[in-house]
Amino acid sequence: MPHDPGAQAEVLIQAMPYIRRYRGKTVVIKYGGAAMVDESMRAGVMQDLVLLHYVGIQPILVHGGGPEINEAMGKFGKVPQFIQGLRVTDAETMEIVEMVLTGKTNKALVSEIHRQGGQAVGLSGKDGNMLVARKVEGEVDLGFVGEIVKVNPHVINAQIAAEYIPVISSVAVGDNGESYNVNADHVAGAIAVALKAEKLILLTDVPGVLSNKDDPQSLISVLTIAEAKKMIQNKKVDKGMTPKLDACLTAVNGGVDRAHILDGRMPHAILIEVFTDCGIGTMIRG
Amino acid sequence: MPHDPGAQAEVLIQAMPYIRRYRGKTVVIKYGGAAMVDESMRAGVMQDLVLLHYVGIQPILVHGGGPEINEAMGKFGKVPQFIQGLRVTDAETMEIVEMVLTGKTNKALVSEIHRQGGQAVGLSGKDGNMLVARKVEGEVDLGFVGEIVKVNPHVINAQIAAEYIPVISSVAVGDNGESYNVNADHVAGAIAVALKAEKLILLTDVPGVLSNKDDPQSLISVLTIAEAKKMIQNKKVDKGMTPKLDACLTAVNGGVDRAHILDGRMPHAILIEVFTDCGIGTMIRG
Amino acid sequence: MPHDPGAQAEVLIQAMPYIRRYRGKTVVIKYGGAAMVDESMRAGVMQDLVLLHYVGIQPILVHGGGPEINEAMGKFGKVPQFIQGLRVTDAETMEIVEMVLTGKTNKALVSEIHRQGGQAVGLSGKDGNMLVARKVEGEVDLGFVGEIVKVNPHVINAQIAAEYIPVISSVAVGDNGESYNVNADHVAGAIAVALKAEKLILLTDVPGVLSNKDDPQSLISVLTIAEAKKMIQNKKVDKGMTPKLDACLTAVNGGVDRAHILDGRMPHAILIEVFTDCGIGTMIRG
Amino acid sequence: MPHDPGAQAEVLIQAMPYIRRYRGKTVVIKYGGAAMVDESMRAGVMQDLVLLHYVGIQPILVHGGGPEINEAMGKFGKVPQFIQGLRVTDAETMEIVEMVLTGKTNKALVSEIHRQGGQAVGLSGKDGNMLVARKVEGEVDLGFVGEIVKVNPHVINAQIAAEYIPVISSVAVGDNGESYNVNADHVAGAIAVALKAEKLILLTDVPGVLSNKDDPQSLISVLTIAEAKKMIQNKKVDKGMTPKLDACLTAVNGGVDRAHILDGRMPHAILIEVFTDCGIGTMIRG
Amino acid sequence: MPHDPGAQAEVLIQAMPYIRRYRGKTVVIKYGGAAMVDESMRAGVMQDLVLLHYVGIQPILVHGGGPEINEAMGKFGKVPQFIQGLRVTDAETMEIVEMVLTGKTNKALVSEIHRQGGQAVGLSGKDGNMLVARKVEGEVDLGFVGEIVKVNPHVINAQIAAEYIPVISSVAVGDNGESYNVNADHVAGAIAVALKAEKLILLTDVPGVLSNKDDPQSLISVLTIAEAKKMIQNKKVDKGMTPKLDACLTAVNGGVDRAHILDGRMPHAILIEVFTDCGIGTMIRG
Amino acid sequence: MPHDPGAQAEVLIQAMPYIRRYRGKTVVIKYGGAAMVDESMRAGVMQDLVLLHYVGIQPILVHGGGPEINEAMGKFGKVPQFIQGLRVTDAETMEIVEMVLTGKTNKALVSEIHRQGGQAVGLSGKDGNMLVARKVEGEVDLGFVGEIVKVNPHVINAQIAAEYIPVISSVAVGDNGESYNVNADHVAGAIAVALKAEKLILLTDVPGVLSNKDDPQSLISVLTIAEAKKMIQNKKVDKGMTPKLDACLTAVNGGVDRAHILDGRMPHAILIEVFTDCGIGTMIRG
User: Fold this and answer.
1) How far apart are CA A54 and CA F193, in angstroms?
2) If residue A187 lies in a helix (H) or strand (E), which one and from where to where?
């Protein structure tokens, strides 16, 4: 980190072409998992969002939960149960999921953004009927696990118009007002399409998509839509990565210019991706 | 309930002078306690809010929690503890309070408003730094119990401009981003002043202020500021009523035209208060 | 009429789905004949308009004259003359018609709306060149009897933008600035189309369209466009009803969702039609 | 009148300093009497208004009636009666006055403005509750003769915002919706003050204020407020001129820069007053 | 020039139909050559522009240089050199051209507009990247002589929105920020198309297009596009007129209603063309 | 200069508090002298301006000329003459000054801003009558040397509203439209006051204000108003620095928070001053 003011200035200057390119555009960022629990990492990611906002780029933060949900369930004396990577969500579990995501994680992110000098409003998919879902039907009844059927972006645009960074928890609402647990990667992809975002960034706990899922050195830098589809079909990607690739495909097919899967544990991964020519993680493009 | 269309029309006509009087004005409504837990009562109150909104009156809903917090604490294996009517709120309790209020109660109210044909956005005092609080200092350390020091109304106005009914949970934020449990009656009073509301309505589980707290027939219909102050000083009101009277005094002293303490268990108490000449509950005025 | 506040509130609640359906929409109402002369009926109709306006529905009132014109002609020593139901309108008669409609009836309606708590502006078809007409040509020269050839809605929209209820007299203007007496039902139909109204309501002195014009019990509740055309062709409707059905057909063919012929003598017929599920009069739909 | 295009251009150029001075300003013009009855004079005055509007000056036309009222009363078989220059106005007379002013004269002026290439909307003092009056109390009961107690300019501003020339008849409304016959000069003066007009122009049938009311050569070009007051007190002006001087005093005392009494029979008197340095008529200034 | 106020008013009245026709429209005026050097002529042309602006017509002034450039080059000790009517423009010449056009002529016109009571902002094609050009390629290298490849009208519209008359010098910018000398007639034509102007007026030092270029009496009043093209192909027009006819064709083909070539030495030629029915110069139409 | 992306991101993060502080504020920058002639330095300064603009800070650039004027005068065969540091400016010299400043220097700066990815509009004090001056009167007649008597900021605000960086040459206009050569430091100070700027930055060719004008090591970092006044009175500053200190005093006395005299030859001096805590040059504060 340079202490020489001239060198500092030079770094700012080098960011200019990237600022020019993305000013006035929207970037949807999905955040979750282990990278979100670490306080210092979280502060770093929120700094990145606030800086984007300062230079005229509109960030939208979508988050899931994960560790915090299991922790809360534990306190409630419930044992998390998963079938094919999906959380079995009975009514009581759904209540805990919603309370943790919307009442704890969401507001913690909102507060952190304020602490970093930004302004944010936290929303769940119930606010303004933003995320409408239906029950996922399958061989096994997973309970209140849903899939997005409609995004109403008006409530998001209202926050943007008032100069806030929207922070959105992955809880959706059904036709009768019931809550659904929806995959946060999918939510991010659907919102990116609904808001005609320029970029979708999924922050995860791995370096990106690997050609050999057991070899962390086998990072793939760029994937076309066709290549990504093929990898999913050929089951070349592990379970955690599948919904992320799905979300990227949804986004890019829906008109988003580029989708990225980045390692959220790398400090300021968002800034490095947006403001330098240093390619990190995996980029999916049309 | 009349089935005669002519009589129905006549009722609408009778509401006209009241609609005329309150169109374009803001009404802050505090909701909580037992009246909020009952599903059918809750549906009725939300209908009232939506109808106000339809006829051009801007409702703002502030809510606390109560029974649901105790229930959740029980599930977490914690025993609620109260000192002089205030909940002792250690860090873990605060987390539960926030999750329940913001992640459960708030969103249930938002969903109910949508089910009744309205549009709502749920907020906590952390969103847009809306409610800034400091720790209540006293002889006993109550933990994260706070009192409001500042209201930033911009985030509320953003929802109003986008034609939503704001629903606000009584969680505030401290200087370092920490959460505070604040009295929902006080929050409603402070917001009514900050938004220059025309009216503050506190829905409770009793008929209003009683001259003799043991005699439910001794309802006082109208109280001046001076009379209300005297009752508090003379400890003529019980503990639950004190913060309500405080909030009414804050509101009326801060420019709100009238404050009301109504029985939330009476069906459509808000409509009856706003749209008829039938005086119910207790009105506090300057 | 209920004196029980709870029942009154219940009636307001029952109106909610109808308010939701029509908020932000425009309703054109034609008013005239005997129902307009009776002061108490007139007050009731104006209350209905003001209430619509209060709940976010935009009423536009179009009126003719009738009895008042004959009365004024009598005072001027002129004998009204009709050929096939149309008033023979020489220059002096036209002057009387215009003075009565625009200078008397129109302003009396405007004043009544203010007395009922609304805000109105009275216009004739000459204002802002709103209604352009040409002479009706036929076997007999009827003088200044015209038919609408163009509606310029800008002047109506200006009043709406300023939150007034427009009240429009059925006088149109020719190419050389001369006045024309035009059928008020036709004016209402043409304005409903020009303003993309949701609904056209013609208030008349009979219960609606009758299948047997001599049997007041033979009211037809619903007519399709095809059925209405057939009735006109087969001369199943009497002379007064023909221009009303014509206007309804113009409206529905021009994109107005529904047109209604109601009995203006029934108290609050407009409210009953708009805010209840009680079908009154005759509805014409596509 | 020059046929030489160069000379025509030169005339336009000479008007420039006057256009610059009055652009964006409001000019209230009172019109009435004999000058209004003559068709060719009327066309000329309306041309002047339209030209003012074209060059960015906002004209507001206020008119009375006069000869046309008497004519209509005659047809109704009523004999006009005057006490001290004021028309005795019983209910029937008021009805005739209102019909003629609002239903005939007003719309004829609106039509003439359209014929001259402008856009106008005709209003009476009842529209938007614009002119509120109370009964003139005196020794003799004059009936519905009123004096202005309040001007609500919103309805005038709505027409201006929609780029119309407002044309206003001198009929006002009482507390109970009843009509009042008010002096049109007074109306013009009150409206000029309410709209913060730059100029008030009263068109009349004489050259201006005379120092010797029997000598048409004794025209006074400029009067200060003090001088005008003195003339009224000393009864140096005749009865027709008194309300005009009153209106001018009201206007100038109320902040209007200058008030003018001009001979409406002189072709294009308004243009000559506004666009040349040729002083005509009498100017009253502070 | 009439001193009779009535006759002056009459002239203003005669201009009304023309004002009505062009209000709210844009007129692009090219000015240059000898007519621009004469101070009195210049004052007259600027008066015309200001008067257009006063009556609601938006003028845009495009100018070249000519005599002043040669004079400046002489002072710099350089001899102007022309090949086929185009100035050979080496780097030093380009610098002189730009300084004279943008630093002297442009600001002199801006000042003159202010002196005539208007408000103006001077721009060159470099401001807001308004005029993008590329080098004219041909047999001989003419240096920095360019042709327009793109017009960015945003910077012009910004001045219009702020109620200024834009004054534009014919200097364009290349891809690397270098300056180009571009033909001012072409610039005017291209801007007229980009701004969807109603009219293009080219002021020159001859009466218009002549059918016999040696006979000043052989003025052609009207040319269709086809006729104008033919004249250029048949070399019936002299070298100075060719770019003017080109610009007119560009404009009319690009949607401009009419293009005019007028004698800028005739006093108030613009006013005569716009505000009278006196046809002067040559009009090109589709 | 770091090539490590993480270090680059860290630098961006360190700029955040400064961006937050100055977002939405205006900074007036005076540029001139030797630092402006060097192409590479100029590119660097323009980058700084564009980066400020990107992050929501509004820069306004004011420039003089200097070397380029002398060079042009030489080419015109004129010898620059100075009396007490002020250029003797006869009419011909004024013409050269204006052509160079407005037609050459100004547009070169505008082009450079575009090349660096910004959008700019160049103005002189004549545009929109922005800078009104009068002749400096003194013992010797200096010709067209003026001092600012009025700033009309509307034309600057129009460019800001259209998202341009205004670039302003130090040429002012007199009452009769004549040009005046005015000191660019003074212009910058006057504009900073008129636009209620947050900061004034004067870029010069020395490190700042020296306590001993012969010792470049004696830089003064901070000067209060009182200290700066004293230095001028005691003639402790040399002639080139006097107008700069004057301009700083004008600005700070007029409400500008801070004024800075920086060395324009230091790369990115503006960024270092605005975005780091590294104090460079001399700061004048109230």
Assistant:
1) 26
2) helix A184-194
Model confidence pLDDT, tens digit, residues E272-282: 999 988 879 99
pLDDT above 90: percentage of residues in chain C: 76
The pLDDT of residue E1: 42
C-alpha distance from A147 to closest chain F C-alpha (Å): 36
Report if residue E273 sits inside a domain.
yes
In a domain, E19, yes or no: no
Residue A2, domain member (yes or no): no
**A72 to chain B: closest CA residue:** B76
Nearest-angstrom CA–CA distance, B201 and B185 = 10
As for the ipTM of the complex, it is: 0.95
User: Cα(E139)–Cα(E83) distance, rounded to whole angstroms?
Assistant: 11
Instruction: Provide mean pLDDT across the span C159-168.
Output: 98
Measured in angstroms, the CA of E85 and the nearest CA of chain F are apart by 24
d(CA A266, CA A272): 10
* Interface test with chain E among F94, F98, F99, by most E beta carbons within 10 Å: F99
Of F91, F135, F101, F172, the residue nearest E114 (C-alpha): F172
Torsion angle of the four alpha carbons E85, E91, E95, E100, in this order, in degrees rounded to the nearest 10 = -10
Contact F127 E129 (CB under 8 A): no
Percent of residues, chain B, with pLDDT higher than 70: 99
How far apart (Å, rounded) are the C-alpha atoms in residues E32 and F3? 55
With cut-offs at 50, 70 and 90, classify the pLDDT of residue C1: very low
Check CB contact of B43 with chain C, cutoff 8 Å: no
For F69, name the nearest residue in chain E, comparing CA atoms only: E99
Q: Does E175 touch chain F (CB under 8 A)?
A: no
247-286 of C, contacting B, C-beta below 8 A: 266-268, 271-272, 275-276, 278, 280
Q: At CA D53, angle to CA D47 and CA D55, rounded to 5? A: 105
CA atoms within 13 A on the CB side of D27: 28
Specify the number of domains making up chain B: 1
Q: Which chains does E contact via 3+ CB–CB distances below 8 A?
A: D, F
Taking only the tens place, the pLDDT of each residue in C45-91 is 999 999 999 999 999 999 998 788 988 888 888 888 888 777 889 99
Domain that holds residue D42: 26-285
Does the pLDDT value for residue A277 go beyond 90? no
C11, part of any domain: no
pLDDT of residue E171: 98
pLDDT tens digits along D188-245:
999 999 999 999 999 999 899 999 878 888 999 999 999 999 999 998 888 889 999 9
d(CA C185, CA F204): 80
Closest-CA distance of chain B to residue A122, Å: 6
CA-to-CA distance for C191 and C247, rounded, in angstroms? 10
For testing the chain D interface, which of C69, C73, C75 should be mutated: the one with the most D CBs within 10 Å?
C75
* Chain D residues in contact with E117 (beta carbon < 8 A): 16-17, 20
**The pair of three-digit structure tokens given for residue A8, joined into one six-digit string:** 């500092």
Residues of chain C positioned with their CB less than 8 A from the CB of D122: 123-124, 126-127
In chain F, the percentage of residues whose pLDDT exceeds 90 is: 76
Give me the pLDDT at residue F170, please.
97
Decide: pTM greater than 0.90.
yes
pLDDT digits (tens, 9 = 90+) for F76-119: 888 888 887 778 899 999 999 999 999 999 999 999 999 999 99
- CA dist F139 and F229 (Å) reads 24
Q: Specify the CATH number for the domain of residue B174.
A: 3.40.1160.10
For F258, phi then psi, to 5°, come to -145, 145
Do D and E count as touching (3 or more CB pairs closer than 8 A)?
Answer: yes
Mutate which of F12, F18, F21, F115 to disrupt the A interface (most A C-beta within 10 Å)?
F12
